[in-house]
Amino acid sequence: MTEWTALTLGKKIQAGEISAVEATKATLERIKNLEPTLNSFITVEEESALKQAEEVQKKITAGELTGPLAGVPAALKDNLCTEGIRTTCGSRILQNFIPTYTASAVRNLQRAGAILLGKTNMDEFAMGSSTETSYYGPTKNPRNTAYVPGGSSGGSCAAVAAEECFYALGSDTGGSVRQPSAFCGVTGLKPTYGTVSRYGLIAYGSSLEQIGPIARDVADCAAILEAIASHDKKDSTSVKRRDYDFTSALAEDIKGMKIGVLTDYFGSGLDPQVKTAVLKAAETLRDCGALVEEVKLNLTDYAIPAYYVIASAEASSNLARFDGVKYGYRAPEYEGLHSMYKRTRTEGFGTEVKRRIMLGSFVLSQGYYDAYYLKALRARALIKQEFDKAFEKYDIILGPTAPTTAPKLGESLRDPMKMYLGDIYTISANLAGLPAISLPCGKDSKGLPIGLQLMGNCFEEKKLLRAAYTFERANAASITEKGDRDDRRPVYGSAVPERSSL
Amino acid sequence: MRHQITDETISQLENLAKLELSPEEREQAKKDMGEMLHYIDRLNELDTTGTEPMSHVFPINNVFREDIVEQENNREAILKNAPAQRDGSFQVPKTLE
Q: N or C: which end of chain B has fewer CB within 10 A?
């Protein structure tokens, strides 16, 4: 049962074939067995999950909850505030933080009847691409436990891949939903900026980030987005959209759709096996009736430097609130107020977070503000204009999600610059506010999943979902034809118990 | 490398960011920041004359609402998160000598 999609489970619950309580128990059992190996979760709320399941099941039986996700167990990235449930952001500084309110996106899920299992592991304050900067230890990739799950939403993606939940929420500031989705072989969507309220999302790069769904397939992502998206007066950057009916776009029909293969993303640094798989995916879309041609943008090389200036600047400002006064960690020893601030933050934050706060403070400081911060914002405007132009001609822009498959545990921490460069294909969508999805399109010779990234124009999630859905169907059909086993199921390293014993 | 980050710059940033790095961390920070800034300098290849800085992808306008008081009475829950509290308030080290 745990391998079903969220929508399949939702349907069976509505049909009375299985109860929300049974589904929740099965998932909790799997969490219990796998967590010692994977560490996808920082906090598991077993008791609360079972209680929610009983209450939701009652409402389903009474006909009060009829939505497609009612009764389906889900997990939340630990930077989403949950009232009464510890929310750490992967950091020591928030190790005892119990929010007094729930993020709007999570409230929306609760209204849809979700069963919330717990909070997933992440890079500290979402700064990292491997989930190794977490204060709570690294998460391992369920496809092979010698490898990282990607990041920063690595815990959410690993939990979905390992069937520890039916779907999860993540957040994407520079690729943090899409890249770990690619590494774990699941499907993850970053919506258009402003589509999902950020109220209750612990801020890192406010002008870049969006909460997004992580699931087993495109249809689940569409249904979850439909549930979480809302215009929210508590987030002044949230947008009132014309359409919220994302599931209506799920049709296998891309005849005449114009897809640009972004040649900038196929240059040096791209693993040849990733390249082959992604180009094959472009061919599949052509076979489905899309007009596929190459497109070149000139400014993608500037996305990473612009991003790291902007994200670090916003981070240094956003993280100023962690001062050891209102919540979280306070250093035990200090001499006076300023010493208390300094010791608290020095002991409470990890290396990567401090590195970005320092860089952000630098680019915002007197004498450097114009040369670095404003320059990066101008570069951002030019990058956005380039994408606007490209979308005048194309419906979808296609490329890889990441230059390689998942690296081995420990590799990313050694060379931060290399880790930053790994975000090269995902960052532009954040700078330009575009919706983008990562979905599995093959595996490399080590058996690690490869992610295909599709980007759409702002507010064109429906086109994006339709293209992704069409590819997913065509790809699944070709796998079945060749007689290969369904490669969406996780393959665990030797340290993880076999399925039959679970 | 063109960027020599000085000890003075690091000290200044530590004050701005309210951080206190160890001697090893300071050396690492100098190296890391130098490398990052060197990489970021490639933005100077871009001619941005006449381009407005874009702090936000969509035009941001003031969001107005009626000025209606909404009381949330959860002082107890909020104070529970404080590292130190006294008489219903956050307790902090002495701020004035």
A: C
**Mutation target vs B (from A312, A378, A459; most B CBs, 10 A cutoff):** A378
| Number of residues that this document lists for chain A | 502
Q: How many CB pairs under 8 A join A and B?
A: 155
To the nearest whole Å, the CA of A102 is away from the closest chain B CA by 13
pLDDT tens digits along A49-85: 999 999 999 999 999 999 999 999 999 999 999 999 9
ipTM value: 0.95
Domain enclosing residue B22, as ranges = 7-45
Inter-chain residue contact B82 with A327, CB threshold 8 Å: yes
Confirm if A131 and A113 have CB atoms less than 8 A apart: no
| Residue in the structure block whose two tokens are 């699931």 | A215
Active site residues of A: 77, 152, 176
Which CATH superfamily includes the segment(s) A6-300+381-434+450-487? Amidase signature (AS) domain (3.90.1300.10)
SS3 A178: helix
> How is chain A split into domains, by residue range?
6-300+381-434+450-487
Query: Can you tell me whether residue A156 is helix, strand or coil?
Result: helix
